[in-house]
Write a structure and sequence with these properties.
747 residues; binds 1-deoxynojirimycin; alpha/beta; globular
Length: 747
């Protein structure tokens, strides 16, 4: 009797307008929480995986559906598809209070349509295109019943050994923050609750990308100043863009696991920053505090995580097993537990799930979005913009750069290498494969055949595998090269060589591939090398001996089309590296914005009693921000509106940039700042702004930047963010090695 009365009350409270807002939601949550038992509250904090697509080690309990029916599960990950999500939601609707489930998924770079790896997209420096890629991913995922993506990963990383660099925006805090904002806006669209949007998740909070030795899940230890200056800003940017959730990281930081870190989660994120959304643990990271030796057992881990501010437990089963008891005994406060429940319920209300728990699981919408042509067009657009042209010299004694291949459109082309006909690899790590991938994903081979109209001009040899020592395919590859006018090699990593748990101590091009390139060069034919990878690789011989090198990362569904657009000059490449490429692993960590030292080096030959290696030049193989075009850009003199400014004034910086070549092209004009003398040691230069401009041959544009006190500020010893008066250098150019310089004073 009492139950049916409560039910009625609940129905009255929830039957508001379709998407209740602000106060209405808070009132509805108050009413609902008054009805909830402790067990049901704890249930909301429990997230489990479906078994059909696990993304981590599974703890099987075999009775998941019963738990849902009992109102003891708040969220599922790894359930997708309108029908599947609907049928699980139907079970949740059998629970006493009918609280809907949240369906979460790693929608990292596309869902049905796969976009380039996030690191590749970062190379486009095109915030609009990056936002659009996330927008489309959200539309496709939302139609399959997904409410929540575990993206964007906004971890800064300066270590290409770390396999997860493929999932982020690279090494730079400023670029990473801009991209974090764009991705959150893309995923969340106009508003959470729209059925074409998903909740985003800024992950992994924090310093996961600084894992020692680049080894995934490893420890991190760093100064607070570095944490504030380098690692936190992209998270802050995501929050300012309205990100609905944060995920904590696996690592400990300065001795405290991120999942149990009260200072980071409760004080900084929820307190100082006022983050109103959900904090979810990473997979099993609550329980892993026992392995860290930070919690005595699973119960202690549950207690520490909740107190620290972790609202939802992904797959540790720690909250569901122990929070009732802990709360009952007063070992965790009801107020903290209620706050976590409230944050989760709030998102369910904002998503409109109380009004219609099935509103995302719409089979008709899912079907209609399945073959949306404009999504493929957008994927091709950002794929070509993500490609980085690393080298483009004239072959042999010739004068003209090898690319684009306009002169070879009617000639014989040898396509050589283990990745020429790859299909699934193009999707990269953290992607979905679909039954029609073999037709939908455009391989390099298919892109070429379509571009040329047939395979008549093409010769093909695999040459070797990606890994291993077998060279028996070299002879046939040589034969194919001999029959052709040009050789295009497609080599690199396989897609699963970069990603979670894919750290590598050796990031040289794997297997016999470099040897295969040498064989091709030895034929005397002009050689173009395409390198696909999820991270910066080391390939010095190729870099020094092959006339044309194109870094293609993994570009997604439209890979082959995008690569041909660039090779044949339909699109003039404009990508710029979002990470420094080392000469060898021994240079790692390597990043352009390192601190000034007491013994700086002047050039690559300068290694005596300065900060340098005896056996390696100081410079990287390719610097951050680097990338060529088929045309050339000339930078004029920097002009400033004043030689000195007060902190409340703006500095207006302009520079003329001219396209001096013969192709129309885009250039990413980058502005770097150096604080010459300060109360703390400062980086040799830091990216503070960029503009991507398009210029026709002969055209000049005045590029303008406005700098404010914020740009000159940095985290002081006491972690306040302030600018100091003094002298600054400013550099503008097409990479972090920019030489055009101006000096000014902040008064
Ligand atoms: C572990 C990964 O670290 C995280 O990024 C991902 O979202 C979860 N697994 C769920 O798959």
């Amino acid at each position: 009797m009492r139950h049916s009365f409560l039910f009625l009350l609940a129905i009255i409270v929830f039957s508001g307008n379709i998407l209740a807002q602000g106060n209405d939601i808070d009132k509805s949550i108050d009413s609902l929480m008054r009805l909830m038992t402790l067990e049901e509250k704890v249930g909301q904090l429990h997230q489990i995986t479906s078994d059909f697509a696990a993304t981590g080690p599974i703890t099987k309990d075999g009775e998941k559906q019963d738990r849902v029916r009992q109102g003891r599960v708040g969220s599922y990950l790894n359930v997708t598809g309108a029908d599947r999500t609907r049928s699980l939601q139907e079970i949740a609707m059998q629970s006493r209070l009918k609280i809907p489930l949240l369906f979460a998924q790693d929608v990292i770079h596309g869902f049905r349509t796969i976009f380039p790896l996030p690191l590749a997209e970062a190379a486009s420096w095109d915030l609009g295109a990056i936002e659009l890629s996330a927008r489309i991913a959200a539309k496709e995922a939302a139609a399959a019943g997904i409410h929540w993506t575990f993206a964007p990963m906004v971890d800064i990383s300066r270590d290409p050994r770390w396999g997860r660099v493929m999932e982020g925006a690279g090494e730079d805090t400023y670029l990473g923050s801009q991209i974090a904002r764009a991705r959150v806006k893309g995923f969340q669209g106009k508003a959470i609750g729209d059925t074409d949007a998903v909740m985003a998740c800024a992950k992994h909070f924090i310093a996961y990308g600084a894992a020692e030795g680049g080894r995934d899940y490893n420890t991190t230890d760093m100064s607070w100043r570095r944490l504030y200056e380098v690692y936190l800003p992209p998270f802050k940017a995501a929050m300012e863009a309205g990100v609905a959730s944060f995920m904590n990281s696996f690592n400990d930081i300065n001795g405290i696991p991120a999942t149990g870190n009260s200072y980071l989660l409760r004080k900084l994120l929820k307190g100082d920053w006022g983050f109103p959304g959900i904090v979810v643990s990473d997979w099993g990271s609550v329980g892993e505090m026992v392995n860290h030796g930070y919690a005595a057992d699973l119960k202690d881990a549950a207690k520490k995580a909740l107190i620290a501010g972790c609202d939802m437990d992904m797959e540790s089963r720690a909250y569901t097993a122990h929070l009732e008891d802990l709360a009952g005994k007063g070992e965790v406060s009801m107020q903290m537990l209620d706050d976590a429940v409230r944050r989760i319920l709030k998102k369910k209300f904002e998503l409109g799930l109380f009004q219609d728990p099935y509103r995302f699981s719409n089979a008709a919408r899912e079907k209609s979005i399945w073959n949306e042509q404009s999504h493929l067009e957008a994927a091709r657009d950002i794929a070509k913009k993500s490609i980085v042209l690393l080298k483009n010299d004239a072959p042999g004694k010739g004068k003209n750069p090898l690319l684009p291949l306009s002169n070879y459109a009617n000639k014989k082309i040898a396509l050589i290498g283990p990745l020429v006909k790859a299909i699934g690899d193009n999707n990269g790590f953290w992607s979905y494969s679909w039954p029609d991938d073999s037709i939908r994903v455009v391989s390099l081979w298919r892109g070429m055949v379509e571009y040329l109209g047939s395979a008549n001009q093409l010769r093909y040899a695999k040459g070797c595998e990606i890994t291993g020592t077998d060279t028996s395919g070299f002879a046939y590859a040589r034969k194919m090269a001999a029959q052709s006018d040009i050789v295009i090699l497609s080599i690199g990593e396989s897609a699963v060589m970069s990603g979670e748990a894919k750290s590598r101590s050796n990031i040289h091009l794997p297997g016999m591939q470099e040897q295969l390139v040498k064989e091709m060069v030895a034929t005397g034919k002009p050689v173009v090398v395409l390198i696909s990878a999820g991270r910066p690789l080391v390939f010095n011989w190729i870099a020094d001996n092959v006339p044309a090198i194109v870094y293609t990362w993994w570009l997604g569904t439209e890979a082959g089309h995008a690569i041909c657009d660039v090779l044949f000059g339909k699109y003039n490449p404009s990508g710029k590296l979002p990470m420094t490429f080392p000469r060898t692993e021994g240079q790692i960590p390597i990043y352009y914005n390192h601190f000034s030292t007491g013994r700086p080096f002047k050039n690559d030959n300068d290694n005596n009693y300065v900060t340098a290696y005896k056996d390696l030049p100081n410079s990287p193989k390719y610097p951050f921000g680097y990338g060529l075009s088929f045309t050339q850009f000339a930078y004029g003199k920097i002009r400033l509106n004043a030689d000195s400014i007060n902190p409340d004034q703006q500095l207006r910086v302009t520079i003329p940039v001219t396209n001096t070549g013969s192709y129309s092209g885009e250039e990413v004009v980058q502005l770097y700042l150096q604080d010459i003398t300060a109360s703390l040691v400062r980086p040799v230069r830091e990216l503070k702004a960029f503009r991507k401009i398009k210029l026709s041959p002969g055209e000049t544009k005045e590029v303008e930047f406005i700098l404010t006190a914020n740009d000159f500020s940095f985290y002081q010893e006491d972690l306040s963010f302030k600018a100091e008066s003094g002298k600054f250098n400013l550099f503008i150019g097409g990479s972090s090695a920019a030489t055009e310089k101006a000096t000014f004073f902040l008064r």
